[in-house]
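quick one
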Amino acid sequence: MKIKFKLIAVAALIMLSGAFKVNAQRKAKAHAPVPQLGKSTLKQVIAAMTLQEKSKLVVGMGFKMPGVPAPVKGEKPKAVDIGGFKLPPSDPEAYEIPEKVPGAAGRTHAIARLGIPSITVSDGPAGVRIEPKRPNDNKTYYATAFPVGTLLASTWDTAMVRKVGVAFGNEVREYGIDILLAPALNIHRNPLGGRNFEYYSEDPLVAGSMTAAIVKGIQSNGVGTSIKHYAANNQETNRNSINTIVSERAMREIYLRGFELAVKTSQPWTVMSSYNKLNGTFTSQRRDLLTGILKNEWGLRGFVMTDWFGGQDAVAQMNAGNDLLMPGNPDQSDAIVAAVKSGQLSMQQLDANVERILKVILISPTFTKYKYSDKPDLAGHAKVSRMAAAQGMILLKNDGSVLPLSVNKRVAVFGNTSYAPIAGGTGSGDVNKAYSVSLAEGFNNMGYKVQEALAKAYKDYIADAKSKQPKQQNFFMLPPPIPEFDPTDFILKEADGADEAVITVGRNAGEGRDRKLENDYYLTFGEKALIANVSKAFHDKGKKVVVVLNIGGVIEVASWRDQVDAILLAWQPGLEGGNAIADVVSGKVNPSGHLATTFAMDYKDEPTAKTFPGTPEAKPEQVTYDEGVYVGYRYFDTYKVKPAYEFGYGLSYTKFKLSDIAVSAPDFKGKVTVKATVTNTGDVAGKEVVQLYLSAPAKNIDKPEQELKAFVKTGLLAPGQSQFLVFTLRASDLASFYTSKSAWIADAGEYKVKVGTSSRNIEKTVSFTLAKDIVTEKTNTALTPVTPVEEWKGKQ
Ligand code: BGC
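structure w/ beta-D-glucopyranose:
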């Protein structure tokens, strides 16, 4: 009995002391300071987060979509339909908590108790996209419209693109934004792609190099980027659910390659997954794409966010490693909480996603309490924009050296967009800029005498037509373009009175829809008539006609180009466009842009003409990339189809000669170098783009005729001046992706190196031999199509 009592007493004592301990621990915990981001370790901060807090951090705060009413207080937010686009219920907090930067695209949730601030993200690829005016505030918040991505790529000048990034990133920082939702680097798979203007090129090396350059420039300001849209998002038709069917090889060699390059060499703070499905599954729900390839194989240190409302299943997205869901809504957070409770989503995965987001927040300007000015150096950045614009314009034709045009000339300026310029495309790629210099204004500024009566007639017509245009119904629906003014009454008079004619042809497009063939890819009836009539009248008087293309994507040129003397491809050149065009037309800047995308003779020559934008025709649900790796020049060169203007093409006001092209050794041992000298043999200073293409032996798999492996934009070379160039080729540059082996392999055999100034203007071919196959990289097996894609076979 005694013993029993003793035992009970001891047990009670132990229990009591245990209880004391727990209590003491609890008390200690209650009094211990709550971990704070930046002061405590990430592990401590994450351990201190409740499941609800985690579920809020990985889901954005929602955003105020123009035209969408705020949720009614006290009521459960409802889904809304905007122009046929169904938006999930908004997060009331998006309306309750004042925005740091009005007009920004989204924010994350703050968790004040743990010292986690809300960070702000904003579009887009051509400039910071925010509201330029704020209620009860007479300051303005305009941003610089830089030239569109396609123009930047046409510079082939990564140092210059980096400079644009430095200016751009400063604007991001000074407007209080943490992450810019750009650059965009999807591939120009088809000329009708509605967002091609935002994207760089049909070639992944160009796209990836430009992306890395601009990311480095932007991020040098201590702000982030979000390279987008990852991946295989090359069209807008049915963009939210189109199923892209594409082989692993085409993914690796074409559609992922640019992202890979950019991630490995510039570490963007974030990557934005795309809207589309890839081989049956939304990209934002594909673990092999986001965790396997992007994070594990390539080593992305930042986080992945969805495109706005992208994907359908928040839990699958979390499991895939899509760390942040944007713009976010409370239903997604609820689903995440429920999934952790039910075991569908592990706490470990959620913590991993949380950790990646926190790591980026830690280095954000908001976290470091940067005092932004709201006064970026807009005048300085406009100069950068103008400089870049002039560097990326491409002289397509210059018969009889019509250009440059001396500045004392009287110029008859035709075409609506000579007066109503298109600085950039629409949608999230648009920028709220304070002004946009038209070609006519730029010419006036340069000192040209722009024929006044004609200019007045155009301006009056445009003002009147604009006042009658239907209002833009929503974000995605552009008002129709104003039909070309008919200047018939002026043409003969101008052919007498003016020295030269300039005609601008303009095009606009943007997210949400692809371009059309009629009246877009092909010229309109009015444009054809304009070119024909002006050319006839001016040529009859022995005067010349120049066409300026103010376009964001490829158009048909072959049917009308013979009628005119010169063609300048100005792309969509940003807010200083007219001045930059005048810089090039006058010869103040010698054109040095080269095409980073092919201009076909006709749409039917495009490799993707039959498959774009997918099937069924009425409402495409699926698009099959049966051309495989034969995209752009890889197709035109391999299948011997003559383009109107080939990839890499561009004229100059001077001439260049390539010489002394030689390979360092006949046999490949780890690397080879290729040397070349480029000399300005003309009369004026200029820059050249020297390109290196490689033809690899097609031993076991078919391969493109040639592929761009390196390029250099020279400095400004004075007449007679030379620049010595060295290109290095490593084993990885020789390799193709072998799906059967999930590996990059360089095949043994003879490699031909072609050095030239376009894909079809090759100065010399040299070669070297690889003695034995090299497996340059073994990858995970990933992205396998549900049924194998029947692809074209190229040369074999
Ligand atoms: C676009 C993205 C953009 C996002 C936020 C989406 O509609 O596809 O490129 O960053 O909106 O505005």
